[in-house]
Write a structure and sequence with these properties.
Cofactor: Mg(2+)
CATH superfamily: Nucleoside diphosphate kinase-like domain
CATH topology: Alpha-Beta Plaits
Function: Major role in the synthesis of nucleoside triphosphates other than ATP. The ATP gamma phosphate is transferred to the NDP beta phosphate via a ping-pong mechanism, using a phosphorylated active-site intermediate.
Pfam families: NDK
Subunit structure: Homotetramer.
Number of helices: 7
Bound molecules: adenosine-3',5'-cyclic-monophosphate
Subcellular location: Cytoplasm
Number of domains: 1
Strand order of the largest sheet: 2-3-1-4
């Protein structure tokens, strides 16, 4: 079934010059990039995007990190793209994410409270539509 998902290339990915490499992997997998833009996130966007994590110990470091530089936001389209992009991205912790994935190949820990894990991808049809409305 054709779906849409929201992808963010986080400030670590943009700052490290990995935007092209990440978009290359998405296109090589066969997903369409329906919308794409680079922007500085606002605190309001991040509060909405990360509402489910409010109160967790990593919440404020995560918001501060996401404000630390520009992000790239994209809407991807394709059959089962929500699950497919999360598979491309790899698991949350970049140190142990499987080689072959974006996080596993390009990410690692940097000794900080926040997990700088390069990308975000929506986890369900409902979150995708909610997140797309935050960023586009
Ligand atoms: P993301 O997919 O954007 O969703 C929430 C983010 O919080 C996650 O990627 C990580 O960047 C971060 N995160 C999740 N769990 C932890 C944790 N235990 N410690 C630090 N950061 C975390």
């Amino acid at each position: 079934m054709t779906e849409r998902t929201l992808v963010l290339i986080k400030p670590d990915g943009v700052q490290r010059g990995l935007t092209g490499e990440i978009l290359r992997r998405i296109e090589a997998k066969g997903y369409a990039i329906a919308e794409l833009k680079k922007l500085q996130a606002s605190t309001e966007q991040l509060a909405a995007h990360y509402a489910e994590h409010e109160g967790k110990p990593f919440y404020q470091p995560l918001v501060d990190f996401m404000l630390s530089g520009p992000v790239v936001a994209a809407i991807l389209e394709g059959d089962r793209v929500i699950e497919g992009f999360r598979s491309l991205a790899g698991t949350t912790d970049p140190t142990t994410a499987a080689p072959g994935t974006i996080r596993g190949d390009l990410g690692r820990d940097w000794g900080e409270k926040v997990q700088k894990n390069l990308v975000h991808g929506s986890d369900s049809v409902e979150s995708a539509e909610r997140e797309i409305s935050i960023w586009f």
